[in-house]
């Protein structure tokens, strides 16, 4: 099958790899019909996630059709259409029993390595480094899904892939970020980062009753999308601290959401320290949010951090008695309620999609997304889509020119990629 | 209560020559179930990476075959020296074994209905006259990690009925053609 494999910083390739097979009794194999590139995949693409190995298949937002199940799988059968959570959870340990699925004890094959780094190991994740288990990801034609009775949710008929695909990660992640703010009527929530998770956090905060949501970013199309979602926007190029204080009558936001994470822009100090490996993460947003958050407020962190951060104003957090909430999303907890929101028409998750491309073009899509080119906010990949028309290649063939294998496989010019207007 | 021949209250290798690794975890199952699984010593290779087989050869006696990450095979006979039903199993290698070793596992009820606290203690002595640690011979260069890994594999097996793995999953290769992943 074809799959998007990581080979190093800024080096991902669509390659032929063997098809996955059942390895454990609770496994299922899913034929992937839609999969997406996540903002957190860019941390891997940029080379900042430790314990990646050349050849690792990326991707943790996918859905498709069950084609095979292991002998202990009870809830799923061949032909079921499912969305797969990016967190792999056993359903039987203390954490799963307490709905803390991303903290599952039993799904990380490299638990001892992870525990050496973090004190304790957490759940395995699809396509997200060997510290998170080293599982093959879903930017591929097929994927092996462990504990298939616990994770995947069956999708009722009548819903398109793209209406439910983001239940795999970004919708629950944005929603949990908002829920972690414990929003009460009259509250103001500030969201740093208007990428896909930020967009879902904005809409979720409004669904959960926030009085006002302030969205902070510096990319015009992302700010425009945030405004569509009901947010008031602030450019991160301005004096955010000052503006937020004025916008909240001098109080500061009741809750702050850092939907940016470890590669925030804005501090040369961190860029240099990160580039020479003196610091693994760039916590610019975290610092800003910690300072501006109101006294007794909540700091909710869905943005990914992977290691060590520097110059955190912990004294400010302490003095103001902030509550900090963070972590990988307990996706399984949110699948049913959020699917219901989609069915009830309360939210249409397709709003965030800007690009649809064939899996063959995934490497170019990463580059475009990383550079925020072409208005890119969210890319959906179609692993089994028929090849799109290739007029340039056809013209070349008619002219009798030899095609390289690379051109034959990946020869779709960027300008011809499907693009939603 | 079945109590084996008591050579000592505390299992261990003689003197202070041994290297010791102690690891604990909490398993969301009752002590009786965990004890019974462990007491059938032939189950141990199902979750320990280094054991090839353990065969019960008589009352409280067993024959152990282990393989190191480097591929060297070791064998020895062991004796259960202490046993308290649903609480403790302790074993020692018979005198004169190639790898002198001892181990114990304890099961205690965890507070707050969280299951059972399991503590594994392993002690090894390098064979006389040979250079290099017996622990390395059995467990590779990082015995602490390996023993912890094995204990977590025991936990996963008991809680879920399987051990998580990616061995056999597809991966791309830097040479441009794919391969199934083998765990390192």
What is the residue-averaged pLDDT of chain B? 84
Percent strand of chain A: 15-25%
Total number of beta strands of chain B: 9
Mean pLDDT of chain A: 90
Gross morphology of chain B? globular
> Taking strands numbered 1, 2, ... along the chain, how are they ordered across the largest sheet of chain B?
1-7-6-5-4-3-2
Distinctive features:
heterodimer, A: 421 residues, alpha/beta, Quinone Oxidoreductase, Chain A, domain 1, Rossmann fold, 2 domains, seven-stranded mixed sheet, six-stranded parallel sheet, 20% strand, disordered C terminus, B: 184 residues, alpha+beta, Alpha-D-Glucose-1,6-Bisphosphate, Chain A, domain 4, seven-stranded antiparallel sheet, 3 helices, disordered N terminus
Protein model, in words:
The complex is a heterodimer of chains A (421) and B (184). In chain A, the strands form 4 sheets. In chain A, strands 3, 5, 6, 9, 10, 17 and 18 form a 7-stranded mixed sheet that branches. In chain A, strands 13-12-11-14-15-16 form a 6-stranded parallel sheet, with helices on both faces. In chain A, strands 2-1-4 form a 3-stranded antiparallel sheet, covered by helices on one side. Chain A folds into 2 domains: 197 residues, Alpha-Beta Complex (Quinone Oxidoreductase, Chain A, domain 1); 155 residues, NAD(P)-binding Rossmann-like Domain (Rossmann fold, 3-Layer(aba) Sandwich), CATH 3.40.50. Chain A is globular and about 60 Å long. By secondary structure, chain A is an alpha/beta fold. Chain A is 29% helix and 20% strand. In chain A, a hairpin with a 2-residue loop joins strand 1 and strand 2. Chain B has 184 residues and is of the alpha+beta class. Chain B has a 7-stranded antiparallel sheet. A two-stranded antiparallel ribbon of chain B has the order 8-9. In chain B, strand 2 and strand 3 form a beta hairpin. Chain B has one domain: Alpha-D-Glucose-1,6-Bisphosphate, Chain A, domain 4. The N and C termini of chain B lie far apart (42 Å). Chain B is built from 3 helices and 9 strands. Chain B is 18% helix and 36% strand.
